[in-house]
Amino acid sequence: MVTRERIEGVLERVRPFLQADGGDIELLGIDGNSANVRLTGVCAGCPSAPMTLYLGIETAIRSEIPEFESLRLA
């Protein structure tokens, strides 16, 4: 089951990489097996944000939570 706690656990592991570049990620909520997030700081306007979000963070979540489906950027 996808829970806020499980997603936050993975985000805590990837968050230092975002913060090192002046950004961050905020979990807004869980919708079924997907999560709604917001990128903040410099990540919010970065042209590489979609690649970071979907190829980096989403992949990290799926490796920990196989039933996870997708991240949705708010």
Please tell me about this protein's structure.
With 74 residues, this protein is α+β, with helices and mostly antiparallel strands. It has 2 helices and 3 strands, in the order αββαβ. It has helices spanning 4-20, 49-64, and strands spanning 23-31, 34-41, 70-73. Strands 1-2-3 form a 3-stranded mixed β-sheet. Helix 1 (4-20) crosses helix 2 (49-64). The longest helix is centred in the first third of the chain and has 17 residues, at 4-20. The protein starts with a helix and ends with a strand. The mean pLDDT is 95.
Features:
alpha+beta; 28% strand; 74 residues; globular; 2 helices
Lateral arrangement of strands in the main beta sheet: 1-2-3
Report the portion of residues in β strands.
25-35%
| Class based on secondary structure composition and strand pairing | alpha+beta
Compute the average pLDDT: 95
Poorly predicted ranges: none
Count of helical regions: 2
How many runs of DSSP E, i.e. beta strands? Answer: 3
Radius of gyration: 11 Å
Main sheet characteristics: 3 strands, mixed
Q: What's the gist of this structure?
A:
The chain is of the alpha+beta class.
Write the layout of secondary structure elements.
Layout: H1 4-20, E1 23-31, E2 34-41, H2 49-64, E3 70-73
Parallel strand pairs: 2-3
Antiparallel strand pairs: 1-2
Helix pairs in contact: 1-2
